[in-house]
UniProtKB/TrEMBL annotation, chain A:
It is a multi-pass membrane protein. This is ABC transporter permease. PANTHER family: ABC TRANSPORTER PERMEASE YTRF (PTHR30572:SF4), MEMBRANE COMPONENT OF TRANSPORTER-RELATED (PTHR30572). It comes from Actinomycetospora chibensis. The chain crosses the membrane at residues 21-42, 275-303, 324-350, 362-385. The lineage of its organism: Bacteria, Bacillati, Actinomycetota, Actinomycetes, Pseudonocardiales. It is found in: Cell membrane. Belongs to the ABC-4 integral membrane protein family. Its main location: membrane. It comes from the Bacteria.
Length: 402, 238
């Protein structure tokens, strides 16, 4: 009695009840498709977020002032230009490539009658690479502009559209920033909503000295943007920043710090952890539907065994050993679940072709392999009980049944 | 006791030999004695009819002889082999090799061609596909159904279905053909047909035990035994 014969008997049994086989399979199809689709969604979201974080600026680290906890007994010190200079020291911070002191403020810009509420970012040219700023038209400001304190400005796309009309090139025009005239020397490439922590399309960029001289005064910094030498050097650069600032601010513990260091790497880690927990949760919910599908298989196979009790009796009378009967019914349920699993993968794949917002689901090859393996396991597990019942039927009882 | 021991059974004078066979259903006061201390043996090539009223215990006897049910007590030798010592799998092998069943209700597998039905015992015997087909076709032509290989049971008349069943019983060349009311569901013409087939098989040297309540059917056999209230008596020899 070869395996081929057992498979042939099983196929015959399934084909004899096409509709029922298909409906039973549907439970597994839905379950597997749900698992494939939801893990693909989670994975797609992860891939999307990773690409967005990469857009924040590779190797970039942002230092922000922070209110220390009350137990520290001090309000803490602000970030200053002296701090920024200390971080740029190649002895104390060998893994730091560039340091950009940043002041920001909210302001209203105006050109003629048009106005736009913006965030003014005053910094140095190294900020462009540190924050991954992409130029649209014109030019970036230079070190010479910073040294001279020239009141020149780059407009975010939304600001340029608001002040000069959609798609315009305002290079050479003047704008008033809180009533101070600035010359427009360029625009930024559209970054799109949600890239980074604030919307860069609503920013205007000007030399640090010009912003301090005309808008904020020469006081404290809003943040310091640091670029590490390489992605690998990022962790080392972070610890160098910590030790320099701890020393300068007289801080003796991590909890007492009056500043915080944020990097794209940290952000990516946190988001990734949250996302994989979320994906796992979704997959677990989908797995419940798989269990329900499996119970459906048990149910239908029990019905099938009862219905074909007489056939089982005939087979036994003709000399089918218990193992052959067991095999026939077990293979039936395995075929149901594995074919259901493969169809489920196909349905799940078809589902991922539908783009959702900005990102597309990305199927994990491991999820496909796991889905097919799990569906086979479901067939064995949920088919075992009905098959054992069929194999244990006494031929005399089975034959007596009409 | 192994499978090869079953296959290796040599020539024994009695194909089946039953001593002191009893079957009791239930326990205590509700116990039903379906068979009481039955002694019965069949020689090779014999054609024996077992007759009795319904409820006499003749079907129980058939189940015992066919290894479909186990006796409460007594000894049953089939081809010299004590059936009581066999486990479920070995009994399945024994039914497959030594016994050919013919049932009143034909008991063909539905939605399955005549050829596939006849091949079925050979599948369980592990016979290869080509040989299986040849032997099944030979068995079908022996019962006069060579043109009906591809017909399904619902496309065949009762007589034809029973002839498929006979072909299926014959195909493994078993030591014993066990027929349970084989003409019970057939019209007169088909009955004559099937009984004629049995006569031919008998002439060819097959051992046949036929269970019936029909005296006309029993009259064809060379020996008739009567089951009454679970006891077996020999009828007068013709």
């Amino acid at each position: 009695m070869s395996v081929i014969e057992i498979v042939r008997f099983a196929m015959r049994g399934l084909i004899a009840n096409r509709l029922r086989s298909l409906l039973t399979m549907l439970g597994i199809i839905i379950g597997i498709a749900a698992v494939i689709l939801l893990t693909a969604l989670g994975n797609g979201a992860s891939v999307y977020i990773q690409s967005q974080i990469a857009g924040l600026g590779a190797n970039s680290i942002t230092v922000l002032p922070r209110q220390p906890p009350e137990t520290a007994g001090t309000d803490g010190r602000p970030l200053t230009s002296a701090d920024a200079r200390a971080l740029a020291d190649p002895q104390g911070a060998p893994d730091v490539a560039s340091v950009s002191p940043v002041v920001t403020l909210s302001a209203t810009t105006a050109a003629g009658r048009a106005t736009s509420d913006v965030t003014v970012v005053g910094s140095t040219p190294s900020y462009f690479s540190g924050a991954n700023v992409q130029m649209g038209t014109g030019r970036f400001y230079t070190d010479a502009d910073v040294e001279a304190g020239r009141k020149v400005v780059l407009l975010g796309r939304t600001v340029a559209d608001d002040l000069f009309g959609a798609g315009s090139d305002p290079v050479g025009q003047n704008v008033l920033v809180d009533d101070v005239p600035f010359l427009v020397i360029g625009t930024l490439a559209p970054a799109g909503q949600g890239q980074g922590l604030s919307n860069p399309d609503e920013n205007i960029l000007a030399p640090l000295t010009a912003v301090q001289g005309s808008l904020t005064g020469f006081g404290n910094l809003s943040q310091i943007v640091v670029q590490a030498r390489s992605t690998e050097a990022q962790a080392a650069a972070e610890s160098e920043i910590n030790s320099i600032l701890d020393r300068r601010h007289g801080i003796d513990g991590v909890d007492a710090r009056d500043y915080q260091v944020i990097s794209a790497r940290q952000l990516a880690d946190v988001l990734d952890q949250t996302l994989s927990a979320f994906t796992l949760l979704l997959a677990a919910i989908a797995a419940i539907s798989l269990v329900v599908g499996g119970i459906g298989i048990t149910n239908i196979m029990l019905v099938s065994v009862t219905e074909r009790t007489r056939e089982i009796g005939i087979r036994k009378a003709l000399g089918a050993p218990p193992s052959a009967i067991l095999g026939q019914f077990l293979v039936e349920s395995i075929i149901l679940s594995v074919v259901g699993g493969i169809l489920g993968v196909a349905v799940g794949y078809a589902g991922t072709l539908v783009p959702l917002g900005d990102f597309r689901p990305v199927i994990l090859p491991a999820a496909v392999v796991a889905a097919v393996a799990v569906s086979a396991a479901i067939g064995i597990f949920f088919g075992a009980y009905p098959a054992r019942r069929a194999a244990r039927l006494r031929p005399i009882d089975a034959l007596r049944r009409e | 006791m192994t499978v090869s021991a079953i296959e290796g059974v040599g020539e024994v004078e009695h194909v089946l030999d039953v001593r002191g066979l009893s079957k009791v259903y239930g326990e205590g006061e509700t116990a039903v004695h379906a068979l009481r201390d039955v002694d019965f043996s069949v020689r090779r090539g014999e054609y024996v009819a077992v007759i009795g009223q319904s409820g006499s215990g003749k079907s129980t006897l058939l189940n015992m002889l066919g290894c479909l049910d186990a006796p409460t007590s007594g000894r049953y030798l089939l081809e010299g082999l004590d059936v009581a010592n066999l486990d479920e799998r070995q009994q399945a092998v024994l039914r497959n090799r030594q016994i050919g069943f013919i049932f009143q209700a034909f008991n063909l597998i539905p939605r399955t061609t005549a050829l596939a039905n006849v091949e079925l015992p050979l599948v369980y015997a592990g016979v290869g596909r080509r040989v299986r087909r040849e032997r099944a076709e030979a068995a079908l032509s022996l019962v006069g159904l060579e043109g009906r290989s591809d017909h399904r049971p619902n496309q065949l008349s009762g007589g034809q279905q029973q002839r498929v069943a006979v072909a299926r019983a014959l195909v493994t060349t078993p030591a014993l053909l066990l027929a349970d009311e084989p003409t019970g569901n057939l019209d007169t013409a088909s009955t004559t047909d099937v009984l004629g087939l049995f006569d031919r098989l008998h002439e060819a040297g097959r051992t046949i035990v036929i269970i019936t309540h029909d005296d006309e059917v029993a009259a064809r056999a060379e020996r008739v035994v009567v089951v009454t209230d679970g006891r077996l008596t020999e009828a007068a020899r013709r």
